[in-house]
């Protein structure tokens, strides 16, 4: 089954737009827990409450081969019907991008990944050519520095007037979306931009980080991000759920936090309907 | 010793501006060679002819844990006085960038790395804060798709008039270079842009890929890239040297190819002097 179908089935089955970031941080985890057991407990406690898992590779790479082994074993442990987005933000020239795509989609076996668009089409195409896999292009990221380049007013030759760089990226993403497997990363911390991007890409899946610890406004993000059917915007949360408690009941606490976020998003969505 | 000093010492000791990309490709390597023995033979045959090694992580990640183990063992094998640039092109928001920096500089132990600037300052700063390490920001990459975004005319608020995105990146890189450890990646395939960037960043180390297989014009790249002392532009080459021969004398052939490229660059530099 391709990524988009798998995602929509999980959204429907679990009535959830929560994408849980599996970002194990030794300093925040309960003491004496290794990251594989931590991840397994979290997955066991939440797999009926989320629409996807999203491990960020940095957390594993920082721990070297042990970390990457734990990542592979975590992927193995996640139920087949919950899609996994490898948050890797890779970007390299054609030949090399092909190897990154292979690493993420074949070696790790992710259902989708995040890709940095700065290098242009030939850096993105090798990912897109895996038609069953999802490709989330970084568009407007959730961090403060995002404005350094992403909101620069640009004058692309195929548009009249100026538009910010992130909006050129969104337009290119639409053009590149020949197989229907392109999505965009748009931070909840920039709700106006989120609204603009949703308007220009009504059918694209948006991956929205920045709620919770990063303090994006969830109500605004739901209002501005959601499409009519409520199945094309997923909200990434990590610390808020993973580290709801540091004691030995951490998995149960994570379950409660995931359930609460799910309910909150669903109520906001329902009350946003006309 | 910090990266820049180590690089300059290697340039001087080996009279070389050749940065050898260690990108093992099973299809191009001699048959029945594993990538660690291949890399070791290449390093043994070239370490007195190059100013740096540059493994691109994609080649290793595509092979999973075995590939990454081979990368770690390759790093171990490279002589202490030749700097190693981990070509990883990472880029993520502040907290996560910190983990990537840790992975590359501490876990792998690279002397320098390449970083994607799209996410802005807080994605770059965690790398810069390792003052002894080098940080090469992608500025104008060597691939055809580079123009999709990098040459868009932009109107930054702190400049009068328009300038292409890559040139805004170069300017920001100068501002961010508080510890003198920032360099830029500029493809030899865009010699005019290389000249422009060298003019705007006269003292910055430029890492120039795109000669050889990618067909950038070496003579133009040397003329436009070099600073007066000839120690601030290094030319990355990979396939042209690594795969000079596929038979059992491949290391000797690689040595010859590296020596030839070194001589070519040095002659071009000497004849470019006034």
Distance between the termini of chain A: 33 Å
Mean pLDDT of chain A: 94
CATH architecture classification name of chain A: Alpha-Beta Barrel
Report the structural category of chain A.
alpha/beta
Instruction: Give the H and E element order of chain A.
Output: HEHEHHEHEHEHEEHEHEHEHH
- Most extensive contact: A-B, 55 and 55 residues
**Number of folding domains of chain A?**
1
Largest sheet of chain A: 8 strands, parallel
Bin the helical content of chain A. 40-55%
The backbone outline of chain A, from C-alpha atoms, is globular
Give, in spatial order, the strands making up the sheet with the most strands of chain A: 2-1-10-9-8-5-4-3
Strand count of chain A: 10
**Low-confidence regions of chain A:** none
The quaternary organization reads as homodimer
Please indicate the percent range of residues of chain A in DSSP E strands (runs of 2 or more): 15-25%
CATH class of chain A: Alpha Beta
């Amino acid at each position: 089954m391709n990524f988009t179908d798998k995602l929509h089935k999980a959204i429907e089955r679990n009535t959830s737009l929560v994408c849980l970031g599996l970002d194990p941080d030794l300093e925040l985890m309960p003491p004496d827990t290794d990251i594989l057991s931590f991840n397994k407990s979290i997955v066991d406690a939440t797999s009926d409450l989320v629409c996807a898992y999203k491990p960020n590779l940095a957390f594993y790479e920082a721990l070297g081969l042990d970390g990457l082994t734990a990542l592979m074993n975590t992927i193995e442990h996640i139920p087949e019907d919950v899609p996994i987005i490898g948050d890797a933000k890779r970007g390299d020239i054609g030949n090399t991008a092909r190897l990154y795509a292979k690493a993420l989609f074949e070696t790790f076996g992710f259902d989708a990944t995040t890709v940095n668009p700065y290098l242009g089409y030939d850096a993105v195409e090798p990912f897109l050519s895996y038609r069953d896999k999802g490709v989330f292009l970084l568009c407007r990221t959730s961090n403060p520095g995002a404005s350094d380049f992403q909101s620069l007013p640009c004058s692309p030759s195929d548009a009249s007037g100026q538009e910010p760089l992130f909006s050129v990226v969104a337009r290119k993403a639409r053009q590149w979306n020949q197989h229907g497997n392109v999505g965009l990363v748009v931070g909840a911390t920039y709700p106006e931009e989120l609204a603009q991007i949703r308007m220009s890409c009504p059918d694209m899946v948006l991956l929205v980080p920045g709620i919770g610890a990063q303090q994006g406004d969830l109500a605004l993000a739901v209002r501005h991000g959601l499409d009519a059917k409520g199945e094309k915007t997923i909200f990434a949360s990590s610390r808020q759920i993973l580290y709801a408690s540091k004691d030995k009941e951490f998995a149960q606490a994570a379950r409660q936090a995931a359930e609460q976020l799910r309910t909150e998003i669903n109520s906001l969505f329902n009350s946003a309907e006309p």
